[in-house]
Amino acid sequence: MLAEINRQIQQDARRREQAQRQAAREQAAAQRAAEQAARQAERARVQAERARAADQKRAEQEAKRLHVEAMEAEVSARNAALVATYGEIDSILADTLEVDDYVDLETLRRVAEHPPFEAGQLAIAIPRPDPIEAPLRPEFVAPPGEPKRFSLTPGAKKRYAALLAQAQADHAEASRAWEAEVAGIPSRQEEQDRAYEAEESLRMQKLDAARAAYDEECSEREAEVAESNRALDELIANLGYGVEDAVQEYVAIVLGNSVYPESFPVLHEFSFDATQGELTLEVDVPAPSSLPGIRQYKYIKARDEITETAQSQKEQKDRYANAVAQVAVRTLHEIFEADRAGRIQTISLTLGTETIDPGTGQMTDIPFVAVASDRATFEAIDLSNVVPSATLAHLNAAVSKNPFGLVAIDLSKGVRG
Questions:
Q1: Fewer CB near the last or first residue (10 Å), C or N of the chain?
Q2: Would residue 371 be called left, alpha or beta, if left means φ above 0 and alpha means ψ between -120 and 50 degrees?
Q3: Is residue 239 within 8 Å of residue 250, measured between CB atoms?
Q4: What pLDDT digit, counting tens, does each position of 231-246 carry?
C-alpha cells in the first residue's frame, strides 16, 4: 500500500512537472506571439506613417504647384490690365475717330412706358359662401325591447313604457330645437350675406384705390415725358436759331457722350459767344501722379512674391505728353464734327490739370495747352494720319515742354497770344 501511495505521489509529481513545462511552453509561445504581433503592428505603423508622409508630400507638392499657378495667373492678369490701361490711354484720339460725334436730338425724344397694372389677390373675387341649409327633421325612434302582448315578465310593460315616454320626450325636445334652428336660418343667412357683401365691397374699394394709384403714377410719368419732350422741342428750335444757351446745351450733350478711359477721366467747362461764333473751352485732365507708373509685374518663385518693374521716366513723360495732346485734338474734333450746322466757327481751348503746388501746398491749375482754331483749318486735317503733338504745332498751339513735370505754359497774353 505504501508503494502504491509512493507511486501515486511520483506520478502526480511527474504530471505537475509536465503541466508546468507545458504551461511554460504555452507561456513562451504566447510571449513569442505577442512579440510577433507587436513587431507586425510596428511595421504596420511605420508603413502607415510612410504612406501618410508620402500622401502629405504629394498634397504639399500639389498645393505648391497650384499656388505657383495662381501667382503666375495673378501676374498675367495684372500685366493684362496694365496693357489694357496703357492701350486705352494711347488710343484716346483713335477711339473717337471711329464714332460719329453728331447727336441727333430726335433720338432723345421719350415715350412714356408704364409697367402692367398688377392687382394681385385684389383682382380675384371672394367666393360666396354656400347657402345655409336646414338640417333634417329628427325622426322618432322607439326604444328596442318592446314586450310581447302577453308577456308574463313582471314589470316589463311598465319599464318599457317608461323608456318609451323618455324617448318621446327626447324626440319632442329635439323637434323643438330643430324648429328653433330652422326658424333662425333666414336671419343667419341674411347675416352671412351681409358679411360677404361687406368683405367683397372692401376688396373692390382696395382694388379701385390700387387702380387709382397706378393711374396717378402713369399720369406722372406721362407728364414727366411730356415736359422732357417739350424741353427737347424748345432746344431743337433754339438750336436752329443759334441761341447761346441751346448751343451750350448741345455741346454739353456731345461732350457728355465722349467716354474716356476710367484711368484718364476728362472734365470740360465751356461757354459760347453767339456774336463771334466762338466756343471757349477749359479742359481738365488727370495729374501725372494719378497714372500708373509700372511697366510690368513679375513673380519671383524663389521668394514667392510679385515684384514690379517701373517704367522709365522717359516712358512716363512721353505717354503723358501724348495723352495731353490727344485730348486737346480730340476735343476740337468732337465739337466741330458734332456741329454739322456750323454754328461754332472757332474754338478757343485751354487744357491743364489741377494739382498741389509743391511750393505752397495748395491746389492750383497748371495749363499745358492753349490752342485756337477755326473750323475750316481744322477740318482740313486728316486725323487718321497725324501725330497729335504735330497737329497742335500745326495749329500754332502753346504746349508745355514737360507736362509730366508740371511745367506750365504762359497764358498771360491769352490763348491767341
A1: N
A2: beta
A3: yes
A4: 999 999 999 999 999 9
